[in-house]
Amino acid sequence: MSAYDGTGPEEILSVEHLGVRLGGRDVLSDVTFAIRAGEFTGLIGSNGAGKTTLLKAILGLHAPSGGDIRIAGRPRSRRNPLIGYVPQRYLLDADMPLRARDVVGLGLDAHRLGISRPSRERTDRIDAMLAAVDAQGFADSRVGNLSGGEQQRVLIAHALISRPRLLLLDEPLANLDLRSGHEIVALLARIATEQEIAVLISAHEMNPLLGVMDRIVYLAGGRAASGTTAEVVRGDVLSRLYGYHVDVLRVHGRVLVVSGAAGGGPDGQSEHPVEVLA
Amino acid sequence: MSVPLATVFGHGFFESGPVHTALTVGATAAIVSGTVGVFAVIRGQSFAGEALSDIGAAGGSAAFLAGVGALWGFLASAVGAAAVMELIGIQRPRGRDLATGIVLGASLGIAALLLYLGTTVRSTTGATVTILFGSLFAVDPGTIPAIVAFSALALAVIMLVQRPLLLSSLSPELAAARGIRVRVIGATYLLALAVAVALAALSIGAILGTALLIGPAATALRLTSRPGRAIAIAAAIGMAATWLGIVLAYDSFYWPPRGHGWPVSFFVVALVLMAYLVARLPAMVRRNH
Ligand SMILES: Nc1ncnc2c1ncn2[C@@H]1O[C@H](COP(=O)(O)OP(=O)(O)OP(=O)(O)O)[C@@H](O)[C@H]1O
Ligand SMILES: [Mg+2]
């Protein structure tokens, strides 16, 4: 989608040889990739591959056991206004006395102490943000009563209103039907190009993202392969990552990563049944 | 209209010292409870509030045995219990019920002992009843300055941490991602909750304290989707319930059985419950159609 080369847009996120240990287990080891401004990157991996762990490490919520994370060239700090975040599977409580616009407003100044002073400028900014994610229709509704897709839009607006350079989304498509999922993906791709924001979006299924992904970071076995989809979604590259033979099948315009099709299952046994990995 | 008013207020209501104290303490406790209670409901910490209030039974009876004001007993026990809850891990979603349950069990045991000692050693049940079920008419007017000071403190704390507290309540993850120290904010809130509960326990008793904390807040949250308005509505409902409760209790001295007034706490809790039911009514009617 967006063009980039060695001298292209600024590098917003760089992860080098990152390792994360949780509960005495190396969930991630030696993960390396970089994302530039305006790029839409898919973070793909099956359940338990470490997608959430990687996003939380970038946010600074997990301390790395090794390696380095840089945001716009600088080591990350506790409150990093350059990063916006939409957590996984978040369903907002129906008891929350907050309208969609209040949640978006909290994205602006929730870290501040004292009472927020309403101002024309603040309201305008919130309205503009709600419009950018097509959420004007339910701006004054209680967030807990909104549908999953509507809540997703509100949370994206919450993450974007502080004008981050990097937007992290953890499985935003998991609860959505195909159409809402498609709308969210299109919206995020548009925001990435229009606002020059680097978007890193995790998913266990790459197909909904294939048309819009500039790059892919594929997680398996605690390690990552990254590049364009053409570079990464290949049998040899993914076999090396998984540590056993996998095949990449293209059926009806969809991509399937399967193990066991041509001899070697995860346990190396040839009679292992075919298993779809991604 | 003027006839019933005259009958209610006709017995020297406004000249009575205990009435003045009751109105002041009741209003103060209602405002703090309403404000803090809104966050207790949205944070899912009603059970913690209930436990902190019940613990007041231990603190209140200890204060009675030691001969100090009930306020200090309620405050010390609630704040101490809040600290223990925080240490056990009320900040973790799973730890919440556990921490609350452990503290609640332990303190009810202590309360049972102290209440027993209170009734046997001092050979009176009056104090025990006051600790458990409260009496706004029995509050020592000398403690009003302290009550007002602690209320102001709790309100100031809530106003100060309001925004980080709201986001932490909405999603601890979102708050942490914005650099908010979720645990510090949670502990700060728990402290304000302890103070609010102590005041509520002093007003309507340790057993009924949560009614003032949770009832008006839950009602307000049915009526509005805005946190600021919810707080104002909760405080107003709480104040209306306590004041009306005081008026009715004062008047009930002239109800049967004559000469034995009905407890203020009964009226306050009944009015709070009525407000909640009225607020729920539209939704309940809608569901049945
Ligand atoms: N706090 C923790 N302590 C110990 N192990 C953890 C912790 N958090 C995650 N893990 C483990 O790390 C691995 C990766 O988890 P993670 O949540 O990052 O996976 P994921 O790719 O996001 O999976 P999903 O698609 O199910 O969301 C899992 O095996 C999980 O059990
Ligand atoms: Mg995950």
Keywords:
heterodimer, A: 278 residues, alpha/beta, Rossmann fold, 6-stranded mixed beta sheet, 4-stranded antiparallel beta sheet, 13 strands, 27% strand, B: 289 residues, mainly alpha, ABC transporter involved in vitamin B12 uptake, BtuC, 12 helices, 80% helix, binds adenosine-5'-triphosphate, binds magnesium ion
Polypeptide structure, described:
The complex is a heterodimer of chains A (278) and B (289). Chain A has 278 residues and is α/β, with parallel strands linked by helices. Chain A has 7 helices and 13 strands. Chain B has 289 residues and is mainly α. Chain B has a domain at 28-214: Orthogonal Bundle (ABC transporter involved in vitamin B12 uptake, BtuC), CATH 1.10.3470. Chain B is 80% helix and 0% strand. Chain B is built from 12 helices and no strands. The longest helix of chain B has 29 residues, at 93-121. The A-B interface holds A 59, 61, 78-80, 83, 85, 87, 90, 92-93, 95-99, 102-103, 106, 109-116, 140-142, 155, 158 and B 38, 41-42, 44, 159-164, 166-167, 169-171, 173-180, 220-221, 224-227, 229-230. Magnesium ion binds next to helix 1 of chain A.
Briefly, what CATH class of the domain at 28-214 in chain B? Answer: Mainly Alpha
Strand content of chain B: under 5%
* Helix percent band of chain B: over 70%
CATH class (first level) name of the largest domain in chain A: Alpha Beta
Number of helices of chain B: 12
Mean pLDDT of chain A: 86
Q: What fold name goes in the CATH topology slot of the largest domain in chain A? A: Rossmann fold
What number of structural domains do the residues of chain A give?
3
Q: Reading side by side through the largest sheet of chain A, how are the strands ordered?
A: 6-7-8-3-9-10
Principal-axes geometry of chain B comes out as globular
Q: Strand count, sense and closure of the main sheet of chain B?
A: none
Q: So what's the overall shape of chain A?
A: globular
Per CATH, the superfamily of the domain at 28-214 in chain B is ABC transporter involved in vitamin B12 uptake, BtuC
For the largest beta-sheet of chain A, the strand count, sense and barrel status come to:
6 strands, mixed
* CATH architecture assignment name of the domain at 28-214 in chain B: Orthogonal Bundle
